[in-house]
């Protein structure tokens, strides 16, 4: 049996299928995919950023504990905690009146809180020998989540 010219051969059918497959996506298909990605991002992004905020609070707590340990070592050597005026810088640079200072008590400079603000230090403190705290993301410490005061007491 001979193939007539009006009937396509198997070879021609394969070429036509490949031509349809290689033409790409339609605008509607691309829009559907973009909507699906947008919906997924809308569901995942808030949970992700909530976790980042919790991480910053945990980092601040860990830094306050570390600074508290350095302050305790300073007190063991000098006999008193640094004054409010001397501040946390007394942990890295010797104050003039600290005769038994054997620091630095921190390996690097005094860190800032996770929101790039200096930690607040007061000695004597209202809650103990010293108060060491961060006012959180908003800088006021009057909220919840990341906007809460993170303190040593």
From TrEMBL:
Coiled-coil region list: none
GO annotation, biological process: protein secretion by the type II secretion system
Cellular localisation: Cell inner membrane
Annotated GO CC locations: plasma membrane; type II protein secretion system complex
Pfam families with a match to the protein in the record: N_methyl, T2SSG
Keyword Transmembrane found: yes
Source species, domain of life: Bacteria
Transmembrane parts of this sequence: 27-49
Type II secretion system protein GspG C-terminal domain boundaries: 48-153
Alphabetic keyword roster: Cell inner membrane, Cell membrane, Membrane, Methylation, Transmembrane, Transmembrane helix
Membrane topology, as annotated: Single-pass membrane protein
Keyword GTP-binding: no
PROSITE patterns, per database record: PROKAR_NTER_METHYL
InterPro entries the UniProt entry points to: Bac_GSPG_pilin, N_methyl_site, Pilin-like, T2SS_protein-GspG_C, Type2_sec_GspG
The family this protein is said to belong to: Belongs to the GSP G family.
NCBIfam families hit by this protein: IV_pilin_GFxxxE, typeII_sec_gspG
Name of the protein described by the UniProt record: Type II secretion system core protein G
Protein source organism: Trinickia fusca
């Amino acid at each position: 049996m001979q193939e007539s010219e009006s009937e396509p051969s198997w070879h021609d059918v394969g070429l036509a299928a490949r031509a349809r497959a290689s033409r790409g996506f339609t605008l509607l298909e691309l829009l559907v995919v973009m909507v699906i990605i947008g919906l997924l991002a809308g569901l995942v992004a808030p949970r992700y950023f909530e976790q980042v905020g919790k991480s910053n609070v945990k980092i601040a707590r860990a830094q306050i504990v570390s600074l508290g340990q350095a302050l305790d070592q300073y007190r063991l050597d000098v006999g008193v905690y640094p004054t409010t005026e001397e501040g946390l810088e007394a942990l890295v640079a010797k104050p003039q009146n600290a005769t038994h200072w054997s620091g630095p008590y921190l390996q690097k400079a005094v860190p800032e809180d996770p929101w790039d603000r200096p930690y607040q230090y007061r000695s004597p403190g209202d809650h103990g020998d010293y108060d060491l705290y961060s006012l959180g993301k908003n800088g006021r410490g009057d909220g919840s989540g990341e906007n809460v005061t993170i303190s040593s007491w």
